[in-house]
Design goal:
Keywords: Membrane, Transmembrane, Transmembrane helix. It is built from 8 helices and 8 strands; from the N terminus they run E-E-E-H-H-E-E-H-H-H-H-E-H-E-E-H. By secondary structure, the protein is an alpha+beta fold. The strands form 2 sheets. It has a 5-stranded mixed sheet.
């Protein structure tokens, strides 16, 4: 094994038994100094970026961190049947794996009652949502929310449930008048289940029914289209009594998709 000698020649360290000079000492000092300066420079750039994050980037960063938390909980609990996706604009989407739905449809045709075979899956989904602790989320994501508050926009996290149907029309004597109404009732059924077992207050939920307008597969009549999608996302709210000029406030709101 090579070892350093106690002597140097011409400002270079020598290895015992090796006539080749090692790296000059002045170069080692230079490299160390340069590395330190580079680290300081990168730190300053990071701090500047954190101080000047635009509203849209702050919103996206919140969604990314929410996705990472949900994905980590999924992995820790071995929920392989659960799909967790980051859609950015619509938040974090939670859906059942197609293999699960292939074995058991979530809803029977023209019905809005959840298939009992799938309630164990929805129960674990509700517990995942509970673990995210959405009421305390604004504190968890405060470093991003403060960039929104700088332009008089605040964030409140909530759960959005979207219902979908296949394209089969309702029969004249059906309980629901059309597929849009049916999909809304399906979304409501899932919302009530998740609300009950996640222990979240009702104000943290919202629903939407799209009927057969957004099929999952090419065959719009396929039972696979009878589904419900769950989204976790920050709801952006324009603060009252804003001191910003109206034009600036509207531009900031449009940038991150706040309804005006």
């Amino acid at each position: 094994m090579l070892s350093l000698s106690k002597h140097s020649k011409g400002g270079s360290l020598l290895f015992k038994g090796n006539p080749v000079a090692a790296t000059p000492t002045w170069l080692l000092v230079y490299i160390g100094l340069f590395t330190s300066l580079l680290a300081i420079f990168l730190f300053i750039l990071t701090m500047i970026e954190l101080e000047t994050v635009p509203p849209k980037r702050a919103y996206q960063n919140m969604v990314v961190e929410l996705y990472q938390r949900a994905e980590n909980i999924k992995q820790e609990r071995g929920l392989d049947w659960l799909q967790v996706e980051n859609t950015l604009n619509k938040g974090v989407r939670l859906t059942l794996n197609p293999d699960v739905l292939a074995a058991h449809n979530l809803f029977e045709s023209a019905q809005a009652t959840i298939n009992p075979e799938l309630t164990p899956y929805l129960l674990q989904m509700a517990k995942l949502i509970e673990s995210l602790n959405l009421p305390q989320a604004p504190e968890y994501y405060q470093r991003w929310i403060r960039h929104l508050q700088a332009v008089d926009i605040d964030a409140q996290f909530f759960v959005r449930i979207e219902g979908h149907t296949d394209a089969h029309p309702m029969l004249p004597n059906a309980r629901f008048k059309d597929n849009v109404e049916l999909s809304s009732y399906r979304a409501y059924a899932v919302m009530e289940f998740l609300r009950l077992y996640s222990l979240l207050p009702r104000e943290y939920f919202t629903i939407a029914g799209y009927g057969s307008f957004h099929p999952l597969v090419e065959d719009k009549f396929s039972p696979e289209n009878r589904r419900v999608e769950v989204y976790l996302l920050p709801k952006l709210i324009m603060l009252e009594n804003s001191n910003l000029p109206l034009k600036s406030l509207r531009e900031s709101a449009m940038l991150v998709g706040v309804e005006q």
